[in-house]
Amino acid sequence: KKTKGDPKTDQEEESHTCCGCRFPLLFALLQLALGVSVTVLGFLMAGISSSLLVRDTPYWAGIIVCLVALVGFVMLCISYQPDEKTCVQFTVKLMYFLLSALGLVACVLAVAFAAHHYLQMTKFTCDTILESCQCKLDTADPLGRTFVYQDAADCGSLTSMLNLYLLLQMALNLVAALVCLSACFVMWKHRYQVFYVGVRFYSLTAIEGQKQKV
């Protein structure tokens, strides 16, 4: 039986704890806070104009990150077993890893879409026409594409508010992507940080040497 003073037991406890708590807790809390923030901000952006595309209101990225956080909390409720001896523990850890990777991809896409839209808006020339804000990249080109934002009586307030929301989305999704990446790295390191390659290689060479002597 292992006692509390056993160094091996202490080492096993430290391997799955961080700052006095089990290591997914910090990531799950951060993911939940960031996911809720991204989701709420996405729905606020959707309320500015009905013509905004889904890619420009990345509440979907926030929902994915919130789902990852919930799986992390479920993993905390499962009693720790060394070497993943329980099927439930392995399944939840694998699900958390895969969803964190999916959240990373979703947040990176959200950052890319928000950055593209923000760069476009910095070059827009907008006018209010019939309760809508119509913007063009090049006013001298009669065939240039016109971007229409419905339900906008004031182009100035819409563009300034939308620019602010896009900057916030880029910042929040970038932080969420870094958190998901860190979670994937910690999960991978926690599972595969120990390789007994040297011992295995030494044992094989010793066996081969014994065979040669015989």
Automatic annotation (TrEMBL):
The chain crosses the membrane at residues 25-48, 60-82, 94-115, 166-188. InterPro entries: CD20-like (IPR007237), Sarcospan (IPR030429). Its main location: membrane. It is a multi-pass membrane protein. PANTHER family: SARCOSPAN. It is found in: Membrane. This is Sarcospan. It comes from Nestor notabilis (Kea). Keywords: Membrane, Transmembrane, Transmembrane helix. It comes from the Eukaryota. GO terms for cellular component: dystrophin-associated glycoprotein complex; sarcolemma.
